[in-house]
Design goal:
mainly beta, Jelly Rolls, 6-stranded antiparallel sheet, 2 helices, globular, binds fe (ii) ion
Length: 179
């Protein structure tokens, strides 16, 4: 009778040669996993995002319109109203953030899920603002205070945001950020 494991076998810290029939295809086609050393500003710099915020870019996946970054709002402030056409997962790392449309306040280690068709407005009241890790998919449409459409951000917008800053500051483009 098959047994069901309670937890994966984890008694030895050693590499096991796992059989897989398609290793050559993986080697030929997969972008490969990697480590992004986020605390190292040489790996990915803080790129200004308006006067009171900065973004540390982590990943760009053009096949799925996925972009990942850390958004840092440096003191009490707002990220204006935007409409999602994809799914977002964010983790609050430091500080706190709330949304005008919802009744909760995100604190460190809290997870925020955003789904297509939602529009909302971020506010941080925390004296040190907020740092949010985000894994984001799909276009985000930004609107002004009168509900006029301003611009769409997507993986290419974020890639351009990163690359423009690198070019203007003589920084090397980090190929590890491109999935
Ligand atoms: Fe959002």
């Amino acid at each position: 009778m098959a047994t069901q494991m309670k937890a994966p076998p984890s008694d030895k810290a050693e590499i096991v040669d796992v059989p897989y029939a398609y290793r050559d295809l993986v080697a030929r086609t997969s972008p490969g996993g990697r480590y992004i050393d986020v605390p190292d500003d040489n790996e990915s710099p803080w790129v200004p995002f308006g006067d009171n915020a900065a973004i540390k870019h982590i990943a760009f996946d053009v096949r799925q319109n996925i972009f990942s970054n850390i958004l840092w709002i440096k003191s009490p402030g707002v990220i204006g109203t935007h409409f999602h056409r994809g799914t977002i997962m964010m983790v609050c790392l430091e500080g706190s953030v709330r949304y005008l449309e919802y009744d909760w306040v995100a604190r460190p280690f809290g997870v925020i899920l955003e789904t297509p068709g939602e529009s909302h407005t971020l506010v941080t009241d925390h004296p040190d603002g907020v740092k949010l890790f985000g894994w984001m998919q799909g276009p985000i449409d930004f609107y002004d205070a009168d509900a006029n459409f301003v611009e769409t951000t997507d993986v290419f917008w974020f890639m351009n945001h990163y690359e423009t800053y690198c070019r203007e500051n003589g920084l090397a483009i980090n190929p590890k950020l491109y999935l």
